[in-house]
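Recap from last week: sequence in, structure out.
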Amino acid sequence: MEYETPLFFHVMEYANRAEGDVIDMVSGNPDWEPPEALREGLREYADLEPDRFQYAPSEGLLELREEIAARRGVDADQVVVTNGAGEANYLAMARALERDRGDEIVLTDPVYPYYPGKTTMLDGTQRFVATDDKGRLDPADVREAASEETAAIVVATPNNPTGAVYPESTMAALVDVAEEYDAILISDEVYDHYDLSGEFASALGVDSSHRIVTNAFSKSMAITGVRVGYAIFPPELVENAKSRHMLVNVATTRPGQYAVLRALRETGPDYYEANRELLRERVDTFTDALDTAGAEYTTPRGSFYVMARFDGYPGTLENVERLIDEAGVAGMPGEAFGDSRSDWLRFALVTPRVEEAARRLAAYFE
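Predicted structure tokens:
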């Protein structure tokens, strides 16, 4: 089996090799500060006894799992702490496929490209359901696409790349579809702290044995390099997921878990609201420049991405490279996210140079 290297890496490598100054709007690495309590936790950990530098319990530190469980309204035994949301999604998709309820994974279009990549890696087949022009997903379309071969339905809310946020009614309807076809709804909620709409609803709000929720602290605490995520499984699905996690990774970082636990306990809501406010300001700055450039664009209701379409400039890899060379701005080609947005480009608003990038794009496309 052959796997394709994600286009993210190609674009980042091209931008790094480019001559001149290039503003990185490719990857979702927050540029703001992590919680101070997280830094303090890492400092404190350095002075602990040698036994604290050995393997953590495979499913995660008990205190962290209990803290997550209390916040999410589940039992701690349902929580598996993972190497970020990436592994959490892998475990969830693998668990859905190994139930022998078909080999099909229903995905949205546009889609975060790691989901179809994981589907291929797990010997599943992909089936796509288009969202509307604002990235909203109609559960009726998902129901029409589902069949007896459907093992899982994978959604992300708030969404990457469209910025859409799925309300409670959508999540409940998607769980209904999963139950109807004895499939698993996998809800990736890694951007839940970046809901700008007030409409975010977790799939955990629906009591069902047909849904798995994945998340991580990578985005919410601006620590993508620390690699602490988690998946919440129904009780009847969790044991095999724990075994696969142990075989693949043994355990995830013990210092990272320790620091995240301290940050969870000591970081108040003001930290998260300040980051959302920063993001709101960047959305306004960037979309104002897109208006100047005459672009069509999506205004994110969550997450921190904007998709834009410039007349006569389709979202190909070649055009992304041109933009790097000629405008000094690196974004992602729309074709990386599926067929429906192949004319678009995606920009991540996680750089302090958003205003400068906006000026460069406006000047380039005027």
